[in-house]
Amino acid sequence: MDAKHFDQWVDTSLSAFEAALDGLVPEKAPAGLGEAMRYAALGGGKRLRPLLVLASCAAVGGDGFAAMRAACAVELIHAYSLVHDDMPCMDNDVLRRGKPTTHVKFGEAQAMLAGDAMQALAFEVLTPGDGIAPALQARLCAQLARASGYDGMAGGQAIDLASIGKALDETTLRDMHRRKTGVLLQASVMMGAACGAVPAQATESLSRYGAALGLAFQVVDDILDVTQDSEVLGKTAGKDQDANKPTYVSVLGLEPARQLAQQLRAEAKAALAASGLADVSLLSLLADSVVERVN
To answer: Which Pfam family name is an example for this entry (predicted)?
Structure first.
C-alpha cells in the first residue's frame, strides 16, 4: 500500500471511529458529567490505538463490528488515563491536545469522575447485548483489563511517580514504559487480532510487533518532549525534564534515543514479516507514522 492509499484508509477509518465514539459517550450523564467525558474523549488526539485495533483486524480478516467496539473501548481507557495523569496529584499538567486539561476546565472532582466513568464505559462498550459472541467479549475484556491494571498502565504510572528524581538504568526505564505506554498499544494490536481467526505463529508475531511499537512510541515521545515546543505537541513541552523524571533522552542521550527508535521500528517490521499474514501493510505504515511523527 502506498502513502496515498494509507492516508485514505486513515481518514475513512477515523471518520467511522469518531462517529462510533460520539454515539457511545453520553451527553446527558448527571450533573454535567457527560460534558466532561465528551470533552476528554472526543475531538482530539492521534487515535493511534484505535487505528492499531482496526489495522490488526484488517490483517486477519476479522469482524469489523467487534473491532470498532474494541477501538472505542481502548480509546476510552486511554482518555481516562490522560485525565487522571494530568491531575495535580499526578503530573499536574494544564495542557492536553492543545486545550486546557479536563481538571482545569471542569475542576478536579469532575475530572476524576469523568475518568472513572470512561473506564467503566470502556467495558460496557465491549459487552453489547448482541453483535459480539460472549467468548470474544470475555477475551477482549480480559485483554483490556490486563493492559490497564497493576501489571500494565497503572503499574507503569506508579513506577513513574516513584522514580522522580532517581537515576534509572535502561532496563528499569524500559520496564516502566513497557507498562505505562507499551502494554496498551500492544493490547490494541492483540484485541484487533482477537476479532479474527489467527494462527499461533501470527499471534506471536503480532504480539512482538505490538511490544516493539509500544516502546518505540514512548522513545519518540521522550525525544519530542525535548525537541518540540508546546504549540506543536499540543501539551506542555519539557515537562519531564522540569519534573526531573527519567526518560530515554536523559538516560541514553538524544542521538542514542533516536537510534533506538529506529531499531525498534525495524524489530516491529521484522515481526510483521514473520507473521505469515498476507497483508500487513497497514500495520507497517503505522509503525512508520509512530517513529516519524512530530507531535
So the answer is: polyprenyl_synt
Which helix (H) or strand (E) segment holds residue 82: the answer is helix 64-85
Which domain range does residue 141 map to?
3-287
Whether 168 is in a domain gets the answer yes
The grid coordinates of residue 31 equal 450533573
Residue 136, domain member (yes or no): yes
Number of domains present in the structure of the chain: 1
- Nearest alpha-carbon partner for 147 in 24, 42, 25, 53: 53
From residue 53, give the alpha-carbon distance in Å to each of 13, 201, 256.
11, 19, 30
Burial per residue of 214-237, b for 16 or more beta-carbon CB atoms within 10 angstroms, e otherwise: bbbbbbbbbbbbeebeeeebbbbb
**What count of residues does the chain have?**
295
Domain membership of residue 295 (yes or no) is no
Question: Which amino acid does the sequence have at 41?
Answer: A
- Residue 3 CB-density burial (10 A; 0-12 exposed, 13-18 middle, 19+ buried): exposed
Spell out the per-residue pLDDT of the chain, length 295, in tens: 788 899 999 999 999 999 999 999 999 999 999 999 999 999 788 999 999 999 999 999 999 999 999 999 999 999 999 999 999 999 899 999 889 999 999 999 999 999 999 999 999 999 999 999 999 999 999 999 999 999 999 999 999 999 888 888 899 999 999 999 999 999 999 999 999 998 899 999 999 999 999 999 999 999 998 888 777 666 676 666 666 778 999 899 999 999 999 999 999 999 999 999 999 999 999 999 999 998 8
Distance from chain centroid for Cα 117: 18
User: Domain containing 216 — which CATH number?
Assistant: 1.10.600.10
The pTM score is 0.95
Residue 293 in any domain: the answer is no
Nearest 5°: CA angle at 41, between 37 and 46?
165
What span, in angstroms and rounded, lies between the C-alpha atoms of 288 and 2?
12
